[in-house]
Amino acid sequence: MTQKTISRETFRNWLGDGEELVVFDIRDPAVVGYVSPLFATNLPAEFVESEIGRFVPRTVVRTVLADGGDGAAALLAEKLGKAGWANVFALDGGIPAWTAGAEASLPTFDTPGIDFSLAVRDERNTPVISVEELKRRRDAGEDIVVIDTRTVTEFSRDHVPGAVSVPGAELLLRFKDVVPSEQTKVVVSCAGLPRAILGAQTLIDARVPNQVSYLHDGTKAWTGAGLELETGRTCVYGEASPAALDFARKHLQALSADAVFPRSISPPPAGGRTIPAGRPIFLMCARLRSSKGAISTGRFRPREASCSASPTAPSPFAVRASSSSTTRLGCGRAPLPIGFSAVASKSQYCRLISRLSSCAQSLDEKI
Question: Which pTM was predicted?
Answer without folding.
Answer: 0.60
